């Protein structure tokens, strides 16, 4: 670039000089030849560097694609692991609630056998059936409200899942 600028300056200076001697003309031709040769050399170096950079860019593009593919695979694995974790967590929660329910029923049965359990009704089958229906209706209403809430606000599903399991148990 500098040579190009200096060449322009020399050409402009030569335009201003009306007389050129043979020696000055030879010198100008030599300078011009040297400048052309330097420009050609610089062009060749630049072309070579551009080819090297193209090869490097292609290699990096290939590496980028490989890394992107590996990243996608890891994201899929992460999603699968999250799904498995949620499934295992749900199964664990269900087992815990089932165990707790069985323990409560066992405790009630023991209390009934030892006479500690007091019956809160008169022992009439109709009364028991009516109380059971009322309790089931309340439970179903609460379950419907929770399901509607989960449908309208899906982000609350994890928090309300425990409540739904307790009600279903």
Structural overview:
By secondary structure, the chain is an all-alpha fold. Helix 3 packs antiparallel against helix 4. The chain has helices at 2-16, 22-114, 125-152, 157-168. The chain is built from four helices and no strands.
Element-by-element helix/strand order:
HHHH
Mean pLDDT: 83
User: Roughly what fraction of the amino acids lie in strands?
Assistant: under 5%
Poorly predicted segments = none
Number of helices: 4
Reported for the largest beta sheet, the result is: none
Give the C-alpha Rg.
Answer: 45 Å
Per DSSP E runs of 2 or more residues, the count of β-strands stands at: 0
What is the end-to-end distance?
84 Å
| Shape category | rod-shaped
Q: Percent helix among the residues?
A: over 70%
**What is the structural class?**
mainly alpha
């Amino acid at each position: 670039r500098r040579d190009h600028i200096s060449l322009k300056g020399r050409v402009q200076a030569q335009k201003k000089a009306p007389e050129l001697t043979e020696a000055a003309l030879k010198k100008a031709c030599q300078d011009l030849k040297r400048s052309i040769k330097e420009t050609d050399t610089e062009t060749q170096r630049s072309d070579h560097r551009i080819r090297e950079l193209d090869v490097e860019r292609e290699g990096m593009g290939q590496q980028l694609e490989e890394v992107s593919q590996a990243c996608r695979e890891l994201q899929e694995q992460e999603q699968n692991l999250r799904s498995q974790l949620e499934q295992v967590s749900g199964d664990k929660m269900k087992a815990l609630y089932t165990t707790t329910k069985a323990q409560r029923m066992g405790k009630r049965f023991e209390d009934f056998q030892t006479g500690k359990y007091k019956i809160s009704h008169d022992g009439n089958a109709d009364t028991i059936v009516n109380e059971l229906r009322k309790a089931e209706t309340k439970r179903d209403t609460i379950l419907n409200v929770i399901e509607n809430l989960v449908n309208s606000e899906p982000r609350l599903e994890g928090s309300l899942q425990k409540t739904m399991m307790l009600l279903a148990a």
